[in-house]
Design a protein that fits this description.
Helix content: 55-70%
Number of helices: 5
Radius of gyration: 11 Å
Distance between the termini: 10 Å
Structural class: mainly alpha
Largest sheet: none
Order of helices and strands: HHHHH
């Protein structure tokens, strides 16, 4: 799980479909990545950061993709 990414997506109204299109994968694959069931490649994380979270006040790549285990 990526709570920071989830929160920023909600704030900016970015959908799973938006992210999937950005890295050229299916909705289902992106859903699995966001749930931690499939890994994000570094290139994919960088592409998402650059496309949606590239302002100087935005979180770093490490903060945005910081993982948290599901309870």
């Amino acid at each position: 799980m990526y709570p920071n990414l989830d929160a920023e997506m909600a704030r900016r109204k970015i959908t799973i479909t938006d992210l999937a299109k950005t890295i050229n994968c299916s909705y289902e694959t992106m859903r699995k990545k966001l749930k931690g069931q499939a890994p994000f490649l570094l290139k994919e994380a960088r592409t998402i950061k650059q496309e949606y979270f590239n302002n100087e006040n935005d979180m770093s790549l490490e903060e945005l993709f910081e993982e948290q285990e599901e309870e």
